Amino acid sequence: MSGKTLAEKLLSEKSGTDARAGDYVEADVDVAMAHDITGPLAFQTFDEVTGDDGELFAPDRTVFTIDHHAPADGVQAANNHNAVREFAAKHGAHQFDVGDGICHAVLVEEGFVGPGDLVIGADSHSTTYGGIGAFGTGVGSTDLGTALATGELWFRVPKTLRFEVDGELQDGVYAKDLILRFIGDVGFDGCTYMAAEYAGSAVESLPIHERLVLSNMAIEMGGKAGLVAPDERTESYLERQTGNEIDLGDAFVSDDDADYEAVHTYDAAALAPQVSKPSNPENAVDVTEVAGTEVDQLFVGTCTNGRYEDIKIVADILAGETIAPNVRMVVVPASKSVYQHMLGTGVFQTLTDAGAVIQSAGCGPCAGYHQGVLGDGDVCLATANRNFPGREGSMESSVYLSSPATVGASALYGEITDPREVETNRYDDTVFAEVLP
User: Looking at residue 250, what is its pLDDT?
Assistant: First the structure.
């Protein structure tokens, strides 16, 4: 019998079975998460399952965030926020409030997730946690509500698509460009209910914040999970983030003879910066094909590219410069920690001097809720993960997706610009961990 993929090994461990792609397993959940949109319905299901005296399966490993409609943009949002606060307080769960940050950033920064964990979240981008070697996946509110009570959930073990990138990425090319290329190659549904496994020397050289980008957008090609094998870089990153000693021990790696649905290989040096044209992430093209497209708004943030390192790339490009006339830039850090780090290192000042508007941490503009929605005819270049019609506001607006470097370069000229035309930086895992001055 052939060896196993990362997904098969992780679900074998969590189910106590010899799990293979296509099998159905009942697996133990390590961490469960919901936010202000998905939480209230999950709470209703939990109460129906357990009754008035129900208890969470593991309060210390249950996390709720208020991040989507945050700050509240209406009465219903405010009521949802209160429902999250009340449920978390009643059951002793961890709860992060307005401005604390986006769920996927907070869970990693605060050390709730580790390699080998099975993490379920009532949010589709819960695949993010695969960047540190966890099996992270999104589930519906009803499934989450049940799992909050039982600590278990059933899964069909996914097949795996493997993406191997070897060599060295050229300047101006980042993980965001890789994942847009992958999605463009296999299509928006090309990995449906499969795991995406990312490997090769170029992936191994990526800092953790970039690996998280790959895993985050696995769902944009239908992926059930997006996995990068944990290694010494993962270990040192988590130790810095959490202050705890991390021992990967027998961390899961895929077997050399694992059975994959398909293997896609790439030469890192041959890859150009990518832009996904409206209105689907799969519409990925080399930046040169859309260079010169005029934009009205630039958006830097989201659970995909709202980390400090992402925002610093933009700030370094704009240092001493001013955003092009008639163009606005909205920056939304992924967490309060990122926001504070921006303040302490001068990144905040650099961006506001250039003309950017910086919001409190949250999801706001990404799904067109508030804090910078688009009007009819507006064209936006965003570091977001989705660009469906109406995703960031008006159904008559247009959203292009790119890396932070491409957004930063485009801000100088008011049109989509190849980041290789300006000086860009690539940061390792220590940037966010710098001691504030």
Answer: 65
Which residues is 135 bridged to in the sheet?
A: 118
Look at the domain 7-266 and name its fold: Aconitase; domain 3 (3.30.499)
Domain 277-421 has CATH 3.30.499.10: yes
pLDDT score of 435: 44
State pTM to two decimals: 0.97
Q: What is the pLDDT of residue 432?
A: 84
Residues with Cβ < 8 Å from 133, sequence gap 6 or more?
Answer: 6, 114, 115, 116, 227, 228, 229, 230, 234, 251, 252
**CATH 3.30.499.10 domain span(s) along the chain:** 7-266, 277-421
Binding residues: 303, 363, 366
| Helix, strand or coil, per DSSP, at residue 393 | strand
Residues flagged as binding site for [4Fe-4S] cluster: 303, 363, 366
Residues of the chain where predicted confidence (pLDDT) is lower than 70: 250-251, 434-437
Handedness of CA 133, 135, 140, 143 (dihedral sign): negative
- The overall longest dimension of the chain from CA atoms, in Å, is 63
Of all helices (H) and strands (E), which one includes residue 342? helix 336-345
- Rounded CA-CA distance 212/210 in Å is 5
CA dihedral sign, ordered 133, 148, 56, 29: negative
DSSP string for residues in 279-323: T-TT-EEEGGGTTT-B-SEEEEEHHHH-SHHHHHHHHHHHTT--P
The rounded distance, in Å, linking the Cα atoms of 254 and 259 is 10
Number of H helices, E strands in the chain: 14, 18
